[in-house]
Amino acid sequence: MIFLKVQNKWSFKVIIGLLIIILLFLPFSFFGQGQSSVDVSKVAKYDFGKTIFPGEDVINDFNINKYPLASNLNYLLDKLLTLDIYGIISAISTGVVPLPISEFSAGGISKTGIAEGFSGPGILVEENNKLLVKAPDNFLWGYKVPYTLAVKVENGVNIVEDNKIIKHVAKEDINNDTIPNLYLSGDFVAKWFKKAKVNDSVTLNYGIGNFSDNRSLIKPDEIKSFFGEEVFNYTYKYPSGSPIMVYMVNYNEEIATTSYSYLGSHPQYNDAKRAFNAQQFVRAWNNTIIPPNSTSSGTEIIGFAMVSDPEAPGGYASHGVCPPARALRSSSYAMGFSLPKGMNGDVYAVNFGVNPGSGIKVTNSGDYPVKIVMWTVGKGPNMVIYARMVKFKPSEY
Q1: What pLDDT was estimated at residue 354?
Q2: Per-domain boundaries in the chain
Q3: 346, 327 in Cβ contact below 8 A?
C-alpha cells in the first residue's frame, strides 16, 4: 500500500513536470502540422455506415498519422489531458506523437475514440473529412432482405452469404442438421432440390438493409442483439421486402382514424369458417407499422380456412376476410391513402387469389409512421371488426 502511494505521487509529479515543460515550449511548437492529409477512412475502425452504440471504440489508433514530437508538443499535451500514460511514454520514447482524435472528429466521439453523447443505434459517417457518430433519428427503419441463400449446383447446394460461398452441402447430405433452418427446414430444401434447376436459389435467412439513414445492412445474427427480440420476431413474421421499424424514440401516438364493419351471416359459405378467417385477418394485420412513404403487407405466417365457392377460381376462397378488409380499406381511405393493392372497391373487398395477410399491400403516403391496430368484438355473425390507424409524431411536434 505504501509502495502504491509512493508510485502514485511519483506519477503525478512526472505528469506535472511534463505539463510544465510542454507549456514552456508550446510557443516554439508548430500547431496542427499535416492535419489536412488525414484519411479518416483509414483511422476509422469500421466502414462508414456501421451501426455504433455508445461505449464502442471506433478509432484504429495504429493508423493515426504521427508527427515529430519536438514541433508538435501540443499533441503531447492532448495525451496528458486525457491521461494517456502509454501514449505519453510512447511519444517520448519514439520522438513522434499521433494527431489528436479531436482534430479529425466532429461529434459523437470522445478524445479517446469512444462513441459517446447519444443513445440508441448511432451510425459512423464522414463529413468534410471529419469522422463522427450520428445519433439515430426519432424513427429508424430498414427492409427485410435476403441474406443467406441455398443455391443449387450439380452435386448439391452452396450456402451463400454476402455473395460469398460459406459452405457446400452434397445433395445426399441435405437435411435439418446441415442446412440453417430458421425459415426453411433442411427437409424442405431437400424436396426443393429435386425440382429446382441449377443456379436456382431459396432464401434461408434474412437481414435488414436499405435503411432510412443509409446505414449498412444488419446481418441476421445481429438483429436481436442490436434492436431486441421484439424487432427480431417482427422481422420473422413479415414477408421479404417489408419495412421493419427498428427504433423509435421521443414520439407521441395519435389516433388518426377508426373504422369498423360487421361480419354478418352467409351460411352458404360456412359462418364458423368465416368467423375464423375474419379473426385470422385481424391477427395478420394487427400492430403492423408502416413508415412514411413505404408499403407493407400483413404477416405471412397466418393461415386461412378455404371454403367451397363455385364462382371462385379453383372452386375455393377464404370467405370471411372481406369484412375486416373493408374496415382496413376505410381506414386507409380516411388517412388519404390509396386503395390497398390486392383489394377492390366492392363489398367483396379482397381480390381472388390474393393472400389476405401477405398479399394485400397498404401504402403510407404520409409524413409519419402509422401503426395498424385491428380487433374484434363479439362472436359469429354478430362480430364487429375494427381497424384503427395510429400516427406516430416526433415529440417536438
Answers
A1: 95
A2: 1-30+65-98, 39-63+104-135, 137-244, 250-397
A3: no
